[in-house]
């Protein structure tokens, strides 16, 4: 927890805003618009800067259909590095910035973070295997943390999804969410992310209750947070990741909506003020 607080600060319930970069070169939906992709990422980073979000996470969400890490091309790493460095230069130095590479590109994300001076990554499949829509995902904690040491990136935090969305967890149905979380802690995660069943779906209150106050590392809500339900997560979570709610009509594939960002930040400020009062 101290590593998290040292980088993210003591402020209650940190807000991590998503930058879903457009489809990258080499992927089926790439539109030949590389320079526009850069400009859009710059625009969204500047918007988050103006609204003083606590942190930003960059992700190649539009690279559908996703492939497993062994099939990720060098062009994805190169493009995500350029985008990460671009966003990092725009954000204030004290604002943490992270990266996720879909699907399961955890080593790639660490390399990007190291090269771009980012503070964290979001990793899939840290402990226990599962079947995702892009195929079977194996556990990676041992390999990933050894790689982090090899490239001298121990200062990059690794936040890890548990029982990840868009996935089947039948093979680990006899392992509870809390047991999975303790396994991730034992394998040295820097933070635990829980989500709903799909992008934009709210994380269940039952899942939050299973973990709240029982972890030694930060609990992060990774999907479905809105200005209407943030109060349900505010006390339990050290951070929330918001993508869909900041987009037009709450659709992750749409453009960012500044009004949604403004309304949400106003709501979180009011919650923090009530806490102080």
From TrEMBL:
<dbReference type="InterPro" id="IPR011060">
    <property type="entry name" value="RibuloseP-bd_barrel"/>
</dbReference>
<dbReference type="InterPro" id="IPR005137">
    <property type="entry name" value="BtpA"/>
</dbReference>
<protein>
    <submittedName>
        <fullName>GH15968</fullName>
    </submittedName>
</protein>
<comment type="similarity">
    <text>Belongs to the BtpA family.</text>
</comment>
<dbReference type="Pfam" id="PF03437">
    <property type="entry name" value="BtpA"/>
</dbReference>
<dbReference type="InterPro" id="IPR013785">
    <property type="entry name" value="Aldolase_TIM"/>
</dbReference>
């Amino acid at each position: 927890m101290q590593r998290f607080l040292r980088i993210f600060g003591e402020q209650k319930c940190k807000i991590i805003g998503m930058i879903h970069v457009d489809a990258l070169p080499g992927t089926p939906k790439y539109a030949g618009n590389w320079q526009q992709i850069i400009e859009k990422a710059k625009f969204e980073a500047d918007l988050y800067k103006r609204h003083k979000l606590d942190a930003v996470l960059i992700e190649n969400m539009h690279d559908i259909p996703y492939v497993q890490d062994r099939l990720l091309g060098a062009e994805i790493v190169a493009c995500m590095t350029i985008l990460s460095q671009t966003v990092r230069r725009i954000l204030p130095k004290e604002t943490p910035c992270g990266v996720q590479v879909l699907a399961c590109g955890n080593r790639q994300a660490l390399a990007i973070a190291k090269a771009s001076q980012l503070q964290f990554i979001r990793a899939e499949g840290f402990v226990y295997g599962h079947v995702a829509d892009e195929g079977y995902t194996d556990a990676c904690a041992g390999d990933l943390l050894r790689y982090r040491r090899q490239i001298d990136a121990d200062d990059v935090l690794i936040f890890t999804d548990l029982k990840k969305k868009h996935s089947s967890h039948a093979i680990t149905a006899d392992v509870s969410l809390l047991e999975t979380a303790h396994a991730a802690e034992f394998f040295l995660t820097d933070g635990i992310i829980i989500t709903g069943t799909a992008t934009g779906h709210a994380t269940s209150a039952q899942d939050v209750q299973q973990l709240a106050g029982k972890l030694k590392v930060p609990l992060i809500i990774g999907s479905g947070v809105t200005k209407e339900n943030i109060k349900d997560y505010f006390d339990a979570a050290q951070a929330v990741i918001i993508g869909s709610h900041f987009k037009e009509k709450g659709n992750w594939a749409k453009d960012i909506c500044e009004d949604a960002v403004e309304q949400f930040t106003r709501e979180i400020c009011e919650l923090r003020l009530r806490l102080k009062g």
